[in-house]
């Protein structure tokens, strides 16, 4: 039986070479560091630049992680796609490798689609992958997908596929929506992950499952301390420390900012590579981020340096 993922999960940054190919060696090393700091791996999430990574590249990188000894029980690959056959192929591949879960976007080109259409999309994935389908975590990020995961849709999918529809990542930024997901479905085994560690202190007492947050890439140990210690006397201090790190990166340039910081702290300039249409940061923005990180005494203990 697949072990359910809970806790702190990173939408893993994807390193690229100078020719913009995925950098497998750096990818594996980054994932090993994250796992070593109690993080799960939502490879090919939004902050992985997943929309810029092909189906073949995603499959190859997932295989590379498993071959390198990363436990499949730590993996929640992103398998959503505009094209249903791509979503099925990615979901089947990750399931066959033993991934603990699938983080599955709704199709995100057509706007104004009905719950019936989105239900059919997820149903087709589950039916086509078949009995071996890994647990699916619905990815609610309407500001990008423009296709919401509504409470009614969750209820319908849970009723039809109670053992496959396992939870959701709520990236809406709307705490009221996250709370409604938890209040309505968590008691029935539906795991809700807010997309920011800043919500952990509110989500965990209600039955939240953890968080799937971009800045786990930078601060896995600190965020895990918030998750594990939310009932402790020092919980407010732990939350404040994690929030201070997140504040540095949560501007509109989050991906290149985190990659810049990785390049700096790993002494490894190629980490700054992003795939178009994203672009590296200009020098003034890099300097501002460096100053903010120094001001909060930020560090990445144990990160492999070049």
TrEMBL record:
Keyword annotations from UniProtKB, A to Z:
Lyase
Keyword field contains Lyase: yes
CDD domains reported in the protein's UniProt record: DHDPS-like
Tell me the SMART domains matching this sequence: DHDPS (SM01130)
Annotated residues that bind pyruvate are located at: 212
Q: Which residues form the active site?
A: 139, 169
Q: Which InterPro entries match?
A: Aldolase_TIM, DapA-like
Return any one Pfam family short name. DHDPS
Q: Which GO terms describe its molecular function?
A: 4-hydroxy-tetrahydrodipicolinate synthase activity
**What family does the entry list?**
Belongs to the DapA family.
**UniProt name for this protein:** Dihydrodipicolinate synthetase
Origin organism is: Variovorax paradoxus (strain S110)
């Amino acid at each position: 039986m697949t072990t359910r993922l809970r806790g702190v999960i990173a939408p893993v940054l994807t390193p690229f070479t100078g020719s913009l190919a995925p950098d497998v060696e750096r990818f594996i090393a980054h994932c090993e560091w994250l796992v070593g700091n109690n993080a799960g791996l939502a490879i090919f999430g939004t902050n992985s630049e997943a929309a810029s990574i092909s189906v073949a590249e995603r499959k190859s990188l997932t295989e590379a992680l498993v071959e390198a000894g990363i436990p499949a029980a730590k993996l929640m690959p992103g398998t959503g796609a505009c094209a249903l056959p791509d979503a099925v192929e990615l979901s089947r591949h990750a399931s066959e490798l033993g991934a603990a879960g699938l983080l599955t976007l709704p199709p995100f080109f057509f706007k104004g689609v009905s719950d019936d259409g989105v239900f059919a999309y997820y149903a087709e994935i589950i039916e086509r992958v078949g009995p071996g389908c890994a647990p699916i975590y619905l990815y609610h990020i309407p500001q990008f997908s423009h296709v919401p995961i509504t409470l009614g849709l969750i209820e319908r999918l849970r009723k039809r596929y109670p053992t496959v529809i396992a939870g959701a990542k709520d990236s809406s930024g709307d705490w009221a929506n996250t709370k409604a997901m938890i209040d309505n479905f968590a008691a029935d085994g539906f795991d809700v992950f807010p997309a920011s560690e800043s919500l952990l202190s509110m989500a965990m007492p209600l039955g939240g499952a953890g968080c799937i947050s971009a800045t786990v890439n930078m601060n896995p140990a600190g965020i895990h301390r918030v998750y594990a210690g939310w009932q402790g006397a020092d919980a407010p201090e732990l939350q404040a420390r994690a929030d201070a790190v997140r504040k540095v990166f949560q501007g509109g340039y989050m991906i290149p900012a985190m990659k810049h910081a990785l390049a700096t702290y790993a002494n490894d300039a190629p980490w700054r590579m992003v795939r178009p249409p994203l672009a590296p940061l200009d020098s003034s923005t890099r300097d501002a981020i460096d100053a903010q990180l120094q001001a909060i005494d930020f560090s990445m203990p144990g990160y492999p340096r070049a």
